[in-house]
Design goal:
It contains no helices and eleven strands. It is mostly beta strands. Strands 2, 4, 5, 6, 9, 10 and 11 form a seven-stranded mixed β-sheet that branches.
Length: about 130
């Protein structure tokens, strides 16, 4: 069983920055693909970014490319999402998720995210 706890959300003005963190339980975190997703009010959950178990490979949604950076610290069992140049359309609940398949590669649209956090609210005002 993997438990994920997000933090770092809040209210920020357009153009500002936030850094989200996701702390994971378990000794095998370092073997997981980790992803960030978000859900805006009235919309379906959407993919934001993913990172391979080693941290060497990352994938981003086109809408955040160049503004967001996903990273991980396997020694701390934590994955991060640095969000810069935030826009009102970035508003939503942000979730981290884990694909527990050991040493899986990042497969856009195909990773099996079996574990999810409870989410953290990000609100960007115009």
């Amino acid at each position: 069983q993997v438990q994920l706890v997000e933090s770092g959300g809040g209210l920020v003005q357009a153009g500002g920055s936030l850094r989200l963190s996701c702390a994971a339980s378990g000794r095998t975190f370092s073997t997981y693909v980790m992803g960030w997703f978000r859900q805006a009010p009235g919309k379906e959950r959407e993919f934001v970014a993913a990172i391979s178990w080693s941290g060497r490979n990352t994938v981003y949604a086109n809408s955040v490319k160049g503004r967001f950076t996903i990273s991980r610290d396997n020694a701390k069992n934590t994955v991060y999402l640095q969000m810069n140049s935030l826009k009102p359309e970035d508003t939503g609940v942000y979730y981290c998720a884990a694909d527990p398949t050991p040493y899986q590669t990042v497969l856009p649209g195909r990773n099996r995210y079996d574990y999810w956090g409870q989410g953290t609210q990000v609100t960007v005002s115009s």
